[in-house]
Design a protein that fits this description.
CATH class of the largest domain: Mainly Beta
Distance between the termini: 59 Å
Number of strands: 8
Order of helices and strands: HEEEEEEEEHHHHH
Helix content: 40-55%
Shape: flat
CATH topology of the largest domain: Immunoglobulin-like
Number of helices: 6
Oligomer: single chain
CATH superfamily of the largest domain: Carboxypeptidase-like, regulatory domain
C-alpha cells in the first residue's frame, strides 16, 4: 500500500512539473520552424523545435524548476540589429499562452501562469518608463545624423548630454522598479533573475546581495539563477576573507 501511495505521489509531482506553450504567430506561413531555447552557462541552449500550422505553434515538456525560456521564429529578423527576434518568457508548470508579434516584438503578449503574468505586467510598465528615451531618439535621430554629417560638434554635444541625463533618470527608475519587484514578489523566479543580473554586473555585492538572496523563497535557491547567485556570493565571501597565517 505504501508503494502505491509513493507511486501516486510521484505521478502527481511529474504532472505538476509539466508545461505547455500555446502560441500564435499571425502572418507566418505553415511549416516555418519555431525554436524554444533554455538558459545555459554559456548562453541559450536548444530545447525543442516545432512548425507553424495555421498560424499556431505548441511546445510541451517538463520543468522541475522555473527558468527563463526564449521563443524565436525562423526568418523573423530584427532589421536594426540583423539578428533574430527573440521573445523571453518563463518556463514553469501550467499552460503558457504566447502571442508572437513578428512586426514589433514589444507588442507580443505572454500570459497564463503566475510568473508570466507578472513578467508581462513588468514589461508593460517598463515600456511606459522607457518611452521618453524612445521618443527622444525618434525625435532627434535626424538632427544627430545631420550634425554628424556636417561635423557640428556643438549640436552633437548638446544632444548627447540631453540623452545622457534622460538615460540616467530612466535607469534610476528601472532600478527602483526592479528592487521593488524583488521586495514584493519573493517567490517569483523573476526576482532571482533580477538579483542575478545585479550580482553578475557588480551592482549589488556583499551583505546587500546576501540579504536580498536570503529574503527570496528557498525554492528559488535551487534554480539555475539561484545557483549562479550563490556561487558568486561564495566567491565574494572567499575573496573578502583574510588569509590564514601559515
Amino acid at each position: 500500500m505504501k508503494q502505491v501511495v509513493l507511486l501516486f505521489s510521484a505521478l502527481i509531482l511529474i504532472s505538476c512539473n509539466k508545461f505547455k506553450v500555446e502560441g500564435t504567430a499571425k502572418g507566418v506561413k505553415d511549416g516555418t520552424k519555431v525554436f524554444l531555447e533554455g538558459s545555459g552557462e554559456m548562453g541559450p541552449i536548444a530545447m525543442d523545435t516545432v512548425e507553424i500550422k495555421e498560424g499556431k505553434f505548441e511546445f510541451e515538456g517538463k520543468s522541475e524548476l522555473p527558468e527563463i525560456g526564449i521563443i524565436s521564429i525562423d526568418g523573423v529578423i530584427d532589421p536594426q540589429y540583423q539578428s533574430k527576434k527573440a521573445l523571453p518568457f518563463i518556463i514553469e508548470s501550467g499552460t503558457i499562452e504566447i502571442a508572437f508579434d513578428i512586426k514589433d516584438i514589444q507588442k507580443s503578449r505572454i500570459s497564463g501562469t503566475t510568473d508570466n503574468d507578472l513578467f508581462q505586467k513588468y514589461t508593460d510598465e517598463s515600456v511606459i518608463i522607457n518611452k521618453p528615451i524612445m521618443d527622444f531618439q525618434k525625435n532627434n535621430n535626424e538632427a544627430m545624423k545631420k550634425a554628424m554629417e556636417t561635423n557640428d560638434v556643438a549640436v552633437q554635444t548638446q544632444l548627447n548630454q540631453e540623452y545622457g541625463k534622460l538615460a540616467q533618470s530612466i535607469s534610476a527608475k528601472m532600478d527602483a522598479k526592479s528592487k521593488d519587484f524583488m521586495k514584493n514578489n519573493p517567490s517569483s523566479i523573476l526576482s532571482m533573475l533580477f538579483l542575478e543580473n545585479y550580482v553578475s554586473r557588480g551592482m549589488m555585492q556583499g551583505k546587500e546581495a546576501k540579504d536580498a538572496f536570503d529574503k527570496l523563497d528557498k525554492k528559488l535557491h535551487g534554480t539555475k539563477s539561484g545557483k549562479n547567485v550563490k556561487k558568486a556570493l561564495d566567491a565574494q565571501l572567499k575573496a573578502a576573507a583574510p588569509e590564514k597565517k601559515k
